[in-house]
Design a protein that fits this description.
357 residues, alpha/beta, Purple Acid Phosphatase, chain A, domain 2, 2 domains, seven-stranded mixed β-sheet, 7 helices, 21% helix, elongated
């Protein structure tokens, strides 16, 4: 029996977590830690980086409370390859606490990580495994022999190089009941954006036909919308999505992670329960300026417009029509801070930024 939520907007609780023959895996990805969190800030204001750090900690707390066998991170651990040292240290220290509890931790570095993670003493923990090269990690849990293979993000023509990457992991040759592939790549059929753009083909898109039937499932990152791909032949691909909204293209997407249950029946392993656990995500709102707005009335207009908005909203100011340079230049950072509460984050649309320039 396989049970999964119809989508990330319809989470469903696991009923098989207590089964002795079942393996639980918590999968999250695209945490982008360090986003909007400068090392030396010139102005004290609310930073979105705090939202990303809080949801990262919520996933780890879930793992510590529910005790899965494995915690898998699908890549883009940080928002870029170099972030403040305290961000790196805090993140890996918290991860080592999960590993200390006996949970295996697996990470496949992503493109924002530049296919590697910053060095840290905490990554030397015996229960933390980073796919800095193609390889496979094996262990036993609940009577199942588990093999998790993976490789760091591959730039360029991954469609051509994928069979070699998979072979180099040794995953298909592992003597195991469960074989999981962890990677930070795009599989054909994945969809993104408010209009549901679907990846079909291209050198950076992996055809599902290359995902062999020997794999129990593919655990992925890179795609920010949570979804499950089920090819006609081959393993299911699980994308948990990002743990927070990274752009306005994700404004209507639920954010969270997967709590997966894998069972082995008659020598065949499959994901029998895929529970999408939703995380809190900041509301994102567009605030549109009328075309005839005068710069003298900007402050009055903005202060009145935000009275009905959520107090923790991320606000993007747009313009209904071509903005004038005078209006754009009036929307300075200090002016916006005087109009919006400290609990909100404010940004300008691309059109306003271009007009300011």
């Amino acid at each position: 029996m396989r049970k999964e939520s119809a989508g990330p907007d319809a989470p469903r609780r696991s009923t098989l977590g207590s089964s002795l023959s079942a393996l639980r895996v918590v999968l999250f990805a695209d945490t982008h830690l360090g986003f909007d969190l400068p090392q030396h800030e010139r102005v004290s204001r609310r930073r979105r980086g705090e939202d990303f750090a809080a949801n990262y900690r919520r996933v780890l707390d879930h793992a510590l409370q529910t005790r899965p066998a494995v915690l898998v991170h699908g890549g883009d651990f940080f928002f870029r390859s170099r972030v403040a040292p305290e961000v790196v240290n805090d993140a890996f220290l918290a991860l080592s606490e999960v590993a200390d509890s006996g949970i295996q931790v697996v990470i496949a570095p992503g493109n924002h990580d530049r296919s590697r993670l910053p060095p840290s003493v905490w990554l030397g923990h015996p229960n933390i495994h980073v796919f800095d090269r193609p390889r496979t990690v094996c262990f036993e849990s609940h009577g199942l022999r588990v093999a998790i293979g993976g490789f760091p993000f591959v730039r360029g023509d991954v469609r051509t190089s994928f069979p070699r990457q998979l072979d180099d992991t040794g995953l298909e040759r592992a003597d195991a009941d469960v074989r999981l592939l962890c990677m930070h790549q795009t599989v054909a059929g994945a969809s993104v954006g408010p209009n549901g753009f679907t990846f079909r083909s291209g050198p950076q898109v992996i055809p599902p036909a290359l995902l062999t039937a020997s794999l129990t499932a593919v655990l992925g990152g890179h795609i920010h919308r949570a979804q499950v791909l089920r090819p006609a032949d081959g393993p299911a691909v699980f994308y948990p999505g990002s743990t927070e909204r990274t752009s306005f293209a994700e404004r209507n997407e639920a954010k969270g992670f997967f709590d997966l249950t894998i069972a082995n029946e008659q020598g065949r392993s499959e994901v029998v329960d895929a529970d999408f656990v939703e995380l809190p995500a900041r509301p994102m709102v567009d605030l549109k300026l009328p075309p005839d707005v005068h710069q003298d009335g900007l402050g009055y207009l903005l202060r009145g417009a935000i009275t009905d908005l959520p107090r923790d909203a991320v606000v993007r100011i747009t313009c209904d029509g071509p903005p004038t340079p005078a209006i754009a230049r009036s929307l300075s950072a200090s002016f916006l801070r005087s109009c919006f509460p400290a609990s909100m984050n404010v940004q300008l649309s691309r059109e306003l930024v271009d007009a300011w320039r």
